[in-house]
C-alpha cells in the first residue's frame, strides 16, 4: 500500500469510528475530555476566529542564560515587548532529583496538574499569556513509534493539552522523540502516524483544540521524507504541522517552499534564522552532537538564511491566521534578552508585524 492509499484508508477508518493499532482495528474511546488520572471531564471548547492575523510569541528556554528558569525568560521577554509565550509543559511538573537544572536556578514550583490558578496569577502579574504549553508530562514516554507505549504517550500529551486549555491555548505542539542511531524507518513512521492521528483526534473531538507535530533535528521526525509521510498518512482534521524555519532549513528543506506545499496544515510557525549560505535548505545537515553554545547554526532573525518576507507575503496571500512563535535554541555571544531584542526589532521594523 502506498502512502496516498494509506491516508485514504485512514480517513475511512476515522469516519467509521475505528482506528488502526498495529494490524488490528480497535474502537475509539467515547469522547469525555476526562484526564487519564480521572479528573472531571471538560466541555468541548468552541473555537473563535483569531482577530489579529499574526500572534507573535517567544519560547522561554534559550540556552546561555534562560535554561532552567522559565520565569527569567518570560519576564525578560516581556520587558522586550513580547506578550505571548510558549513553554514546555514539563517545566511545571514535578522534577526528578536527577533532572538537569542550572546551579543558580530558583526552587522549582510545581503547577501541573492541580495548581493552574496560581500559574495564571503569576502570568497575569507579568502581563503575559501562553500561546501553548507543549509536549507531555515529565517522565512519561515520548516513543511515538512504539505501539506498546501508545496509550501512555496519548494520555500524557492529552493531559497536558487539557491543562493548557485553561490558559486559552488553542493548539498543542510536540516533538516526536529522540532520533535513534539507526534513524527512522517507514515502519516507525507508520506507527508514529497512527499514534499522532489518535492523539489529534482525541484532542480535536474532546477539547476542540488542534494538534501539531514539530519536525526537529535529532528527532524521529526530521527530514522531508519523514515530514511528508506524516502529513500524507494522517487526517488533516487531527494532525497539523509546526513549521520551524530553522530546523526545516538545517534539515535540507526550504521553509518557504514547504509552507507553500503544506500551508493548509500549518498551525504554528517557529521563527529562527540561519546563515545566509544555508538559504533554501542547507547542504550540510549538522549532526545531533553539535553543541550550539560552541558552534551555533541558529540565530536571531535577520541573519539572512530564511526568507521571512517571502513567508509573510505568502501567508497573507492565503489569509492564514495563527501563531508566529520565536524560538532561539542558544545565545552563546550575548544574553538571551539581547538576542530577543534583535529579533523583536526585526519583526517590528522589517516584517512590520506588531508584537
Architecture overview:
An 8-stranded parallel β-sheet has the order 5-4-3-10-9-8-7-6. A two-stranded antiparallel sheet has the order 1-2. The chain starts with a helix and ends in a 6-residue tail after the last helix. The protein has helices at 3-16, 70-80, 116-126, 150-165, 186-207, 224-232, 245-250, 255-262, 308-317, 336-349, and strands at 18-21, 24-27, 54-59, 84-88, 129-134, 171-174, 210-213, 240-244, 266-271, 322-326. With 355 residues, the protein is α/β, with parallel strands linked by helices. The chain has a single domain (45-349), classed as TIM Barrel (Alpha-Beta Barrel). The longest helix is centred in the middle third of the chain and has 22 residues, at 186-207. Mean pLDDT is 88; it is low at 1-30. The chain has 10 helices and 10 strands. It is globular. 34% of the residues lie in helices and 14% in strands.
Amino acid at each position: 500500500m502506498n502512502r496516498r492509499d494509506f491516508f485514504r484508508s485512514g480517513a475511512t477508518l476515522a469516519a467509521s469510528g475505528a482506528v488502526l493499532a498495529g494490524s488490528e482495528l480497535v474502537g475509539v474511546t467515547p469522547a469525555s475530555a476526562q484526564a487519564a488520572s480521572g479528573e472531571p471531564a471538560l466541555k468541548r471548547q468552541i473555537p473563535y476566529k483569531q482577530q489579529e492575523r499574526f500572534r507573535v510569541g517567544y519560547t522561554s528556554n534559550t540556552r546561555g542564560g534562560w535554561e532552567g528558569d522559565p520565569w527569567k525568560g518570560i519576564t525578560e521577554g516581556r520587558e522586550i515587548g513580547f506578550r505571548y509565550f510558549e513553554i514546555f509543559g514539563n517545566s511545571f511538573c514535578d522534577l526528578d532529583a536527577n533532572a538537569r537544572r542550572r546551579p543558580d536556578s530558583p526552587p522549582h514550583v510545581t503547577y501541573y496538574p492541580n495548581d493552574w490558578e496560581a500559574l495564571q496569577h503569576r502570568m497575569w502579574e507579568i502581563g503575559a499569556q501562553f500561546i501553548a504549553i507543549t509536549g507531555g508530562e515529565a517522565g512519561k514516554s515520548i516513543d511515538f513509534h512504539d505501539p506498546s507505549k501508545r496509550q501512555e504517550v496519548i494520555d500524557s500529551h492529552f493531559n497536558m493539552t487539557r491543562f493548557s486549555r485553561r490558559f486559552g491555548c488553542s493548539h498543542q505542539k510536540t516533538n516526536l522523540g529522540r532520533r535513534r542511531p539507526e534513524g527512522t524507518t517507514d515502519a516507525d513512521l507508520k506507527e508514529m502516524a497512527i499514534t499522532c492521528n489518535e492523539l489529534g483526534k482525541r484532542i480535536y473531538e474532546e477539547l476542540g483544540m488542534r494538534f501539531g507535530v514539530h519536525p526537529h533535528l535529532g528527532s524521529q521526525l526530521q527530514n522531508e521524507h519523514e515530514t511528508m509521510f506524516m502529513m500524507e498518512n494522517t487526517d488533516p482534521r487531527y494532525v497539523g504541522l509546526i513549521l520551524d524555519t530553522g530546523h526545516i532549513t538545517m534539515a535540507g528543506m526550504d521553509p518557504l517552499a514547504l509552507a507553500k506545499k503544506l500551508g493548509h496544515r500549518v498551525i504554528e510557525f517557529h521563527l529562527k534564522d540561519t546563515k545566509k549560505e544555508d538559504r533554501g535548505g542547507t547542504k550540510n545537515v549538522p549532526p545531533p552532537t553539535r553543541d550550539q553554545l560552541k558552534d551555533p547554526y541558529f540565530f536571531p532573525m535577520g541573519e539572512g538564511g530564511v526568507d521571512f518576507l517571502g513567508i509573510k507575503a505568502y501567508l497573507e496571500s492565503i489569509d492564514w491566521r495563527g501563531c508566529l512563535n520565536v524560538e532561539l535554541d542558544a545565545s552563546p555571544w550575548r544574553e538571551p534578552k539581547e538576542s530577543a531584542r534583535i529579533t523583536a526589532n526585526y519583526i517590528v521594523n522589517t516584517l512590520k508585524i506588531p508584537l
